[in-house]
Amino acid sequence: MDSQEFKKDFLESAKAAASVTGEGSCASFVENMAQYLIDTEVIPEFYPSFYKGQKGSHKYRVDGYVLDEFDYTMNLIVADYVGIEENRTLTNTSAKTMFKQLRYFIDIATNTDLYKEIEISTPCSDLVDMLRSTRDKVRKYRLFIFTDADMSSAIKTIDIEDCNGIPVEGQIWDIERLFRVCCSEQGRQVIEIDFTEYCESGIPCLEASSAVTDQYSSYLGVIPGKVLADIYDKYGSKLLEGNVRSFLSTKVAVNKKIRATILNSPEMFFAFNNGISATAMDVQIESTNQGKFIKFARDFQIINGGQTTASISNARYKDKALLDNIYVQMKLTAIDETTQEETDELIRNISRSSNSQNKVSDADFFASHPFHRRMEQISRHMFAPASSGAQYETKWFYERARGQYLQEQMRLTPAKKKQFELQHPKNKVIKKTDLAKVQNTWRGNPQTVSKGAQTNFASFAEWINDEWEKNDTQFNERYFQATAALLLMFQLLEKQIPKQGWYEGGYRANVIYYTVALFHKLLKEQFQGMDLDLINIWNKQEVPEIVANILIDISEKVFYKITDPNRRVINVTQWCKRNECWEAVKNMNYSLPRDIENYLMTLDEVKTAEKFAKKEQRITNDINAQVEVVKYSADDWKKISEFAVNNHLVSTADVAALSIACKIPSKIPNSVQSKKLLDLLERAIQEGFKI
To answer: Among residues 491, 395, 414, 434, which one has the least CA distance to residue 9?
Structure first.
């Protein structure tokens, strides 16, 4: 697949989505583009909010938005969409005009009575409310142009006037740029920092020569507080490794002690603060008569010290603190790239270890949890039944890593690509965040799901981590099938809600979350001892008509409830994030028809089926453990044994297992022994063993 194929595919997908939902193809294009940018961590979430107007000779327009609550960057989006495959170029002049329209919208929204003109309980009303309520908190406006044209090579940088003293940044995303990011090994935008732009010589450092391996090298440096704040002001939350960002945004308030030191005892900051830890690749070090200096780093990520970084920047911004006497110690680990998977795993392990002194649970590093590998394994071998008269079976493709679905097709011939897409249709791709979304909804947490992909994913991670420790066999083929069935319910509502006469636009996602959650609550209350047969939906690969009709009927009631003029919070988007909203929806009266009973299972039947699925998973786990162990030779296990003994990692039970492993292939450890061996190997790797 090349960029032109990707573009054609992208535009066709937008048009197909529009024809299904009845929404405009421009809206579908924007939403599709936004979803890609969420996946690549450019923006944290997306809320559609189309609105355009004119005041005097000034036109204004907005198509969507999201507030990054971690660094208080307000992201606003405007579309440049025509929908034709003919080559079209976005010129510098056109780009400036669109940025002006979006920039002027901010002025109109915050400084005029526009809020009185816009109908309340509409997405744009929510946006205007948010712009007005956060104007004293916002630190940066980031304006996006989403375009289906090709960006002119003449466009380098576009300067946009500050908004009431707040800096405004402009970004243009055409499909070619999206393709480059999606197809990169990182699957995201990579930050490249030239430290000489911030301090002439770079960052002074010492090489920790004893810590140099073929995997990484380490440096200890001192970075001026002003430089750290400048870098953070430019890159914001993108500077922070994903786990750290998620952890800080959901669990930690601004550290008052750090702020107090900055304001009252800046000269003591270096002594009082633990500093930051960072990772990077392609680190350039220059040796001079004055010592070593860090000049450049690619893919620079702060893995510990995000709170310190944000606090320094906030103190300068909010308290007008002078940072001349603030210096921060920095441990920089320069990663030597091998495979992307190995690199990512090393960064995650460094991040986990660096944060071990903080209250960061394993759930905060859920992206690397074995749960995802299991879902991936199931998705690769499990065929879904043929549906809608199709003569072939398909598979639901689970994306354990970002952009996996696209990258799987990159090196395929056109014929092989067509075959791949037939077997793995686009509408059967399961992203990690989608799985978390449908499962948390079904568990009765629509208010949490409404808080956005990142927050919901963190919440789901905590639950999975606890449940996995109790019994990992519950996450099996049946669980995967149920997840696909729930996704089919979500897809049905996504298609049908926009076609309903009562639907006035906006809040579709929130309506879906609350509809599905309420439906499941009503089922358990009105048909006690029973639950929906999700495996029946999997077997048919479609939602039964009776269930579909009930869901659509409930969705109407939900829509009017969450947009009720008497709600406690005016902003509907924010209201849907509140527990009070869920309580209000739960108190609605609705009787499910009796004929739905034909699509239910008794809880005893559910338990029997789950028991069987767990047993099957247990057998699979045993086989996988043995397969993994025999991947290593007897000599490998002898080396592991020697290292483990020398580092006091071996228990009595491990000795017997090791003695057999050291005789592979003439003897093979059993499943119990294999699990002990793999656990021992993991402990050895954590202690520095390298196979």
So the answer is: 414
